[in-house]
Amino acid sequence: MNTAPATPSASSFSAVLVANRGEIARRVIRTLRALGIRSVAVYSDADADAPHVREADEAVRIGPAPAAESYLDIDAVVAAARRTGAQAIHPGYGFLSESVGLAEACAESGIVFIGPGIDALQIMGDKARARDHVVRSGVPVVPGFDARGLSDDEIAEEADAVGYPLLVKPSAGGGGKGMEVVSDATGLSAALASARRVAKAGFGDDALILERLIRRPRHIEVQVFGDVHGTVITLGERECTLQRRHQKVIEEAPSAGIPDETRDRLLRAAIQAAESVDYVGAGTVEFLIDADSPDEVFFIEMNTRLQVEHPVTEEVTGLDLVALQLHVAAGGALDEGPALHGHAIEARIYAESPERGFLPSTGRVLLFDAPEGVRVDAAVETGSEVTGFYDPMIAKVVAVAEDRATALRRLDDALGRTVVLGVDTNIAFLRELCRDPRVESGDLDTGIIETLLPVAEQAPSPEMLSAAAARVRESDSAHAHSRRAIERAGSVWLSLSDPTASTLAFLTDSGDVIEAASAGSVGSGIATAVDADGAVWVSTDGRTARLRPLDRRARLRHRLAAREQEAAAGGPEGLAPMPGSVVAVHATEGAVVRAGDPLVSIEAMKMEHQVVAPRDGTVHLLVSVGDQVRRDQAVARVTTEESA
User: Fold this and answer.
1) In 10 A of CB 110, how many CB atoms?
2) Peptide bond preceding 254: is omega within 30 degrees of 0, i.e. cis?
3) Strand ranges in 257-365 using DSSP code E only, listed in sequence order
4) CA max distance for the chain
5) Whole-structure pTM value
6) Which pLDDT value is given to residue 12?
7) Burial class for 458, CB neighbours closer than 10 Å (0-12, 13-18, 19+)
8) Main-chain phi, psi angles of 352, to 5 degrees
9) How far are the Cα atoms of 354, 374, 432, 528 from residue 540, in angstroms, in the given order?
10) In this predicted model, what pLDDT tens digit does every residue of 567-619 receive, in sequence order?
């Protein structure tokens, strides 16, 4: 089989379809525009008004909001390319970026797939097969085994032979989705079930591999490029060690001070892995090294696509990697990679709440203000809707300097000037991470973030409260909306009965009542916005709070409600911690459960969370698999009257 991408008769393309969404779609469209190539966007119903749709030269609807019915629909994507005359499809990352099916459909339709050949996709797209393949090419791997076709008892025997702790991960897919850490044999069964469920839902394949868990791992990856003429080059390595639940949070290039001998070993092993599959296009070979013994490197997987963190490589090489992808896909030859210069660090901004266990946040972006002086690749703008259908990453901030310490300080400063109002974000947590002494010194391992948890909620500063109070008093439209809401629904949260009072009270999302002693003007460096419920969002120095104004009557009613809630502590209902879809029900109707027993699993933005029994008793289920639930919706009730 000829696995190299088909090449057009011309040296470049006149039209390229971008089979993705969000910031990567905007990123690819930006390069296409610079090269004078017509861009074609695709979109689901949820993204009809998204920035990437407006920025493309042409856009095609490919289905409803769920990714399985739109962005993962190969037939719809290829049909859109045919309809618009696109000569090539750029898959971005995620979705169909590593899909053998899309590559085959492109070949059958005479469309260029901007990615590697089919053989490379098949081998490297399956972690277990990739592992076996690179071992034969002399690339070192972490001890482990392929669990495909094994019963749970057989897996347990193999796991005992390898030794705990173990990492359970899907063979298909990437991005840390479905990975589970197992400390000992007692947790293996539950980890296998969860990993299979996530793998089946996210990748359509529940095959797993298990590997020995390195206790202080550093995650380092090498950017490779290959062309149809047999040349494979590297563009240096990236440090991706700062991650949570195997999802990268901060990345940098080059790595934070690994020995030169280790770097050489990484680059050689990456080229070996890529050459073993005649690799064409952009790819990333990922490795683990032990922070306490960095002389060894272990291959973990190869991502056969562009990576989320590719901007840091662009910043230290001066290359446009998307343009290089197009060049290679059109049959162009590669030169030697350029010398690296300076240091670049990228932080991923997620729509999530670190204070609530990093649960995803959805809603309308009331204000997005990107900082100047740094690179920002964003999926959103003011007015964008963040839904629960897709990944929660909404922007990336990239800082560059001559040295690592300066780049890190610039990133911290830029994050402090980044404003996102309307959804919760991890910006304040990212700033805390930038200032951690271990991060500053480069003493990194993948467990650093876990040592900073749980994240305590910070009370709004007096300046934030004053700005919120000023916004309430100055916003006639917000006040009018709140009055109408009170009249319609009798809400206790939304309006001020006396807007001239010297003291205003606000209710935080955690349920605390805080008073603002004065309401001056909104100071410089403080951003505010009012949402549809009349709540004031306020942001400064990377910190954000959502504050719901209370009048005197509302304050009294809230105190009474708080007392009732305290009296009913250990109440009967298990509540959904986030909006999402019910993917599993772990208890049967009428069963006797103990406090802490899992009842229901809810998935949103590719994250799964269990709702557990709030107390001992008899469970009554209020939802079924497939149901959509709201945040704080009761999904089960546990009663004590009928318990044994």
Assistant:
1) 10
2) yes
3) 281-290, 293-303, 343-350, 352-353, 359-360, 363-364
4) 78
5) 0.81
6) 81
7) exposed
8) -155, 165
9) 17, 18, 15, 9
10) 445 578 898 888 888 999 999 999 999 998 999 999 877 678 889 999 999 99
